Amino acid sequence: MSSTPSKNTSSASAKRLSRPARRTALVVHVVASASWVGLTLGLLALGITAAGTGAAVTVEASVRAMKLFADWLLLPVAFLTLISGLVLSLGTQWGLARHRWVYVKFWLTLATTVATVLALRPGVNSAVAAVATGGPLPDAGDVMMGPIVSLSAYVFMTVISVLKPWGLTKRGRRLREAGGRRSGTTTKPAESAERSRPARLGT
């Protein structure tokens, strides 16, 4: 009987990242996320410049710079953020579907990555194609709405990463209850203390 909890504990810990690997993944995730926010701010500044100026040279320079960011920097940073977040979720106690804030953040990250591929980059490319032939900017929304929506999503994800709201999902509650039944009454005080302790990602 007593060997079952220890076997479950060892198998669960085997799935988790080691401390150095967890810290490395956390640093990569934070740097990639911050880079994504910075790139989006740069895209928004360039989009506002392109939409607000009347000089054709400035418009073309702005949208060409946006294309450079979108083609060479934005997608690698987006995928690095998504992958490092998955590694942290699946390799630590947080899990991917145990806490609502982690679950929401994952889907928002995935949605913004897909939107970058399907909406932001095509909009920038069409703007570049239009101004390259000497024409005016076809639509200010093509170069502004993508960065605005993305930046709003990133700010929201940053807020929930800090506050960690909404508690456990149904799956998370079931796993916690199952773990409590397996470990018995001797671990309930420790479990209660863990619940009351502020949660921090990567610790």
Write a structural description:
The protein is an all-alpha fold and 203 residues long. Helices cover 79% and strands 0% of the residues. Helix 4 (100-132) packs antiparallel against helix 5 (140-163). The chain is elongated. 21% of the residues are buried. The model is unreliable at 1-14 and 185-203 (pLDDT under 50).
Topology:
Blueprint: H1 3-14, H2 19-52, H3 56-90, H4 100-132, H5 140-163, H6 170-183, H7 188-196
Helix pairs in contact: 2-3, 2-5, 3-4, 4-5
What distance lies between the first and last C-alpha atoms, to the nearest angstrom? 31 Å
Number of helices: 7
Return Rg in Å.
22 Å
Average per-residue pLDDT, rounded, comes to 84
**Shape label:** elongated
Q: How many DSSP-defined strands?
A: 0
Key features?
mainly alpha; disordered C terminus
Summarize the entry for a quick read.
With about 200 residues, the chain is mainly α.
